[in-house]
Design brief:
α8 packs parallel to α9, α9 (220-237) packs across α10 (250-264) and α15 crosses α16. The longest helix has 18 residues, at 220-237. Helix content is 34%, strand content 19%. The strands form 6 sheets. It has an 11-stranded mixed β-sheet, with helices on both faces. A 6-stranded antiparallel β-sheet has the order 16-15-17-20-19-18. It has a 3-stranded antiparallel β-sheet with strand order 14-22-21, with no helix packed on it. The protein is of the alpha+beta class.
């Protein structure tokens, strides 16, 4: 088509759109980015060419309108300047409706990985590597078997005495599951549907900055698809009075909120919690806008009418409104002598009044003395609070009487509590504000949706596992569990990461299920839970008086095509890639659209290493990443009899 030639000629005038190597390939992703951002230089080039102007612009009176959608559709056609990889995919049958299979965005299955061995952390150099597998998208007609429960293997139970073979399984057992989290969630459904009290997840934020071996830099719509798939299953697992907490940053918050409104319904939205995660310091403060120090937690109930929030209090500063003192609390209330707290303490410290005490001692020091005294004498320090008109009738009646009899204290019993009224206002004792938190008496206030009191610094060693960034404080998870669960409730985290959720749940005597597909599952969550069982004293251990004990079961989804994905990630040479292809060819668990007879080894070898990996990924049948339970007796998969037995026990327990 002539328009192809004209468009190519125009685009060649923009150096930003072409690779720097000898092949001079069109960088389609860059082109899409510039079009999406209405790049002036690019639009000017297109306008100045007669053919491209006729095709992609429309004249409306005195204005010229750029047909952006039409142009985007044009440049993403496989026929327009196909690179070698696209041409190869077309040849072997892996394109559909003008798009590569990997460009379709119906169901996001495979979590993207970095081009490196999958570790818990990575160096800066590793962090700059390109993606191998952006994400694998399955169309609806390819999802027929993906939701089936999978075969579970490599069972082992850990307690204070180490690892043991498993003889029985019950819902009381804590679980750490290795495998793709979407498939693992589907595998949990037969056993745990409507039974999870709390789900907490800290998913990849789609920023490219994730500390784990994940690559969290998704295509935006693919990231939302990825989240949608998992949240839909998560909702089915929640109990009717269950709740989900989703940690997210500001970049994806608004999109995720809309997505969750659709899945969990707007009426079940409970709150957005703002969490202070850092303080401005060093190079971080060099920013053209206000420094970002906040993450967010979206909070949804499965059924808001059934969710029970446990009122929670946090430490607060002394409230100077509590500024009156009863000198003789042991006397009858009618004879109480009341003085100003600040002046009383100033004179006790040999100063004329509060003003002189502030001048001589310093306001901060003097108020510290007042705060300590108020805490020690909380039953006789008070403030006067207004009584609303909608208070109980008998209280309002006494209020009105008190307003005309200043200086007289009235007493009334209401709901088994004594209420004292002076000058038309209620005497509210400081003791009502003081609570024991973590074994310490302190003034307190009800928890709000602004959490700025949980330190994120110095937590890298919590649990005995190291992670520089991305780790959440145990105090954060403790608070979440405190307000939404009680002992023996079941907690799920399907982005287990460093294992914080499991560690806190274990110490707080909740049951838990962790899911993680990365190899660092052994170095992070598994190792951390072993430390917890041995009596780990980091994090919240002292606050909850943790001494050790308990157990968990480790188990894996049985890999099939997933093992080739793992091998492809680690392959560094074409020889390794070709060896993997030979193994795939022997087992022939191909995507159904793939046409093996049209596979050209010569053409395949001409691709660069990254595209060879992508091509082999695309010929794999994603329905066979892991072995379905229904195929457990197929001799092809060589499932051990012990694993068969335990898999049956796991799924068939009622």
């Amino acid at each position: 088509m002539k328009i192809f030639e004209d468009a190519e000629k125009v685009l060649k005038k923009d150096d930003r759109l072409w690779s720097k190597d000898e092949d001079k390939r069109l960088l389609k992703n860059k082109l899409v980015e510039l079009v999406s951002n209405d790049d002036e230089k690019l639009l000017e080039l297109l306008l100045n060419d007669k053919e491209t102007k006729e095709h992609f612009f429309k004249k409306i009176k005195d204005s010229t309108l750029f047909l952006k959608d039409k142009f985007l559709q044009f440049i993403t056609m496989n026929e327009f300047l196909p690179d070698s990889f696209t041409a190869f995919e077309n040849e072997i049958g892996l394109s559909d409706d003008g798009k590569l299979i990997t460009q379709k965005e119906e169901i996001s299955l495979v979590f993207p990985h970095k081009d490196c061995v999958l570790e818990g952390g990575q160096t800066k150099e590793e962090g700059k590597r390109d993606e191998i597998f952006y994400n694998t998208i399955l169309a609806p007609d390819e999802v027929d078997r993906i939701k089936e429960p999978k075969v579970l293997v490599n069972w082992e139970k850990f307690n204070q005495d180490g690892g043991h073979e498993i003889k029985e399984i019950s819902k009381k057992d804590n679980l750490i599951i290795k495998g793709n989290n979407l498939l693992a969630l589907y595998s949990l459904l037969p056993k745990y549907r409507d039974e999870i009290k709390l789900i907490y997840i800290d998913p990849p934020y789609n920023t490219g900055n994730d500390e784990f071996g994940y690559n969290d830099k998704f295509n935006h719509s693919a990231w939302l698809t990825f989240m949608k798939n998992r949240l839909e299953v998560a909702r089915e697992l929640l109990s009717n009075d269950g709740v989900i907490f989703i940690n997210i940053d500001d970049k994806e918050y608004s999109y995720l909120k809309i997505l969750c409104d659709g899945i969990f319904l707007k009426e079940n939205f409970l709150n957005t919690i703002s969490v202070k995660t850092s303080d401005p310091s060093g190079h971080k403060t060099v920013n053209p806008s206000p420094y970002s120090q906040t993450e967010y937690i979206l909070l949804y109930a499965k059924d808001k009418s059934k969710y029970k929030y446990a009122i929670h209090y946090v430490p607060s500063e002394y409230d100077t409104g509590y500024n009156r003192l009863i000198l003789n609390p042991e006397s009858d209330y009618k004879k109480w002598k009341i003085v100003g707290l600040f002046d009383y303490l100033a004179k006790r410290e040999k100063y004329r009044d509060t003003r002189e005490a502030n001048q001589k001692l310093g306001k901060h020091i003097f108020e510290g003395l007042v705060a300590d005294f108020a805490l020690e004498n909380r039953d006789r320090v008070f403030q006067l609070t207004a009584i609303a008109d909608d208070a109980a009738k008998e209280i309002v009646k006494i209020r009105d009487l008190s307003e005309t009899n200043n200086g007289i204290i009235y007493k009334i019993s209401h709901n088994k509590n004594d209420i004292y009224i002076l000058d038309g206002r209620q005497i509210y004792f400081y003791s009502n504000k003081v609570r024991e938190i973590d074994g310490v008496l302190t003034p307190s206030k009800p928890l709000t949706n602004l959490w700025a009191d949980i330190p994120y610094n110095g937590i890298s060693g919590e649990g005995g596992v190291k992670l520089k960034n991305g780790k959440k404080p145990e105090k954060l998870l403790r608070r979440i569990l405190d307000i939404s669960t009680t002992e023996n409730d079941l907690v799920l985290d399907f982005f287990a990461g460093a294992g914080t959720t499991g560690a806190v749940a274990h110490k707080m005597e909740r049951r838990y299920i962790l899911i993680e597909q990365m190899d660092y599952i052994h170095d992070l969550p598994e190792a951390r839970l072993k430390n917890v069982i041995k009596g780990d004293q980091t994090g919240i251990s002292k606050a909850v008086n943790w001494k050790g004990g308990g157990s968990f079961i480790y188990v894996e989804l049985l890999e099939w095509n997933q093992k080739y994905i793992n091998q492809l990630e680690k392959a560094k040479t074409q020889k390794e890639i070709l060896d993997i292809y030979k193994k795939i060819e022997q087992e022939q668990f191909y995507r159904y659209k793939y046409e093996p007879k049209r596979f050209s080894l010569k053409q395949f070898k001409e691709l660069d290493l990254k595209d060879q990996k992508r091509a082999l990924l695309d010929i794999l049948d994603m329905n066979h990443l892991y072995v379905n339970r229904s195929s457990m007796d197929d001799t092809t998969f060589k499932v051990d009899e012990k694993d068969k037995k335990l898999t049956k026990v796991f799924y068939e327990e009622k």
